[in-house]
Design a protein that fits this description.
By secondary structure, the chain is α/β, with parallel strands linked by helices. It is built from eleven helices and 14 strands.
Length: about 400
Amino acid sequence: MNPEIKRKLRMGLVGGGGAAFIGKVHAIAATLDNRARLCAGALSSNRQRAKDSAPAFGIREDRAYSSFHDLLEYETHLDEEDRIDFLSIATPNHTHAEIAIAAMQAGFHVVCDKPMTTTLNDAQALVKAVEDTGRIFALTHNYTGYPMIRQARELIASGEIGDVLAVRSSYLQGWLTTFDTNADAARGVWKTDPEKAGSGSLGDIGTHAFNLIRFVTGLTVNKIAATVETLHSSRLLDDYGVVQMRLENGTLGLITYSQMTHGRLNDFSLEIDGTRGALLWNQESPNQLIVRRQGQSTEIMERHPGGQYMLELARQSTRIPGGHPEGFYEAFANVYRAAFDDMARNIANGFHPGINTLYPNVYDGLEGVRFIERVQESASSNSQWLEF
Ligand SMILES: NC(=O)c1ccc[n+]([C@@H]2O[C@H](COP(=O)([O-])OP(=O)(O)OC[C@H]3O[C@@H](n4cnc5c(N)ncnc54)[C@H](O)[C@@H]3O)[C@@H](O)[C@H]2O)c1
């Protein structure tokens, strides 16, 4: 229930049908707190599969559409109390801009997966669509939703580790070492297709690392220099990269991303060196934040709503008592929860948040796409330093 409007928000979903991955996560995360109900979907690029997938999502036959065009067309003509409030987009990267812009022009709020678009032009068009329509737009850089990531953000903001001197993130996976575009055709083949993905591992996971650095430190990026490789002999898109950055105040930044590291599953870590201490978080142990101070014993902050060390934002971002693992779905749901606050306010009184939101928004998405383009530009000019 959303207090401002005294009802659940009505959700539409594009993608997620058949063997697809992240659409199902959206469906679970958006409804985890009983603040939304999935009512309509265009779940696949295959018209029949789009309809066949709907019952498993609890979507009624008359709201199971065979394309997003049909969904927008029919939903806009439903009574106001029936039609969807927002559309979640969980489709390949090259489709995001068209679907999101059409949805906002039809009057719906949007939650879109990352990277926001495959070109800077599309990203700018999306920013314009948000500004013109006044709709709420959230981008699911879901790692920003982890309680202990939010704890790290609050610790840094309160000066607990002093000035931020350097930040390192590595995001390592191994699935591209053995991924077979024929045998594994059920899902994700588009990720190796330049037309559909735009970039390879850079857009897929490098943008998460970039976004998390920005979210946790709050520091803007001034300069960037990158080396990008395609280590797999039969691929067209990058699968490994090293990105150096100079952030505000001279802070050093380093991102290593790889989908060619045998045996790594979703090994995403963030480490921050401050003048008074250092922080380390790893996605594979997401309920812990490690705090180190030279000469002192290492402190492990466990996600625990009753913990006296838990800062307000982190505490509010947990749902269950400490010791019960929270993870991917809950963090994803935290991004939704913050977006729902703004959607409900928008529906109640026309509120629009502008540039700063707790959830990643269209401006963060634009930055992410600029990050992709700058990295590619630097990599193709001998790793030259470029203004960001
Ligand atoms: N936030 C995260 O952690 C995370 C994780 C994985 C993927 N993603 C992002 O989510 C998006 C989808 O990735 P995925 O791994 O679920 O891909 P996937 O290949 O598993 O699924 C894509 C789905 O979209 C459908 N689709 C394609 N075009 C469509 C259209 N025009 N209309 C309706 N449905 C359409 C496909 O039929 C399929 O069901 C990508 O942008 C990806 O980068 C984000």
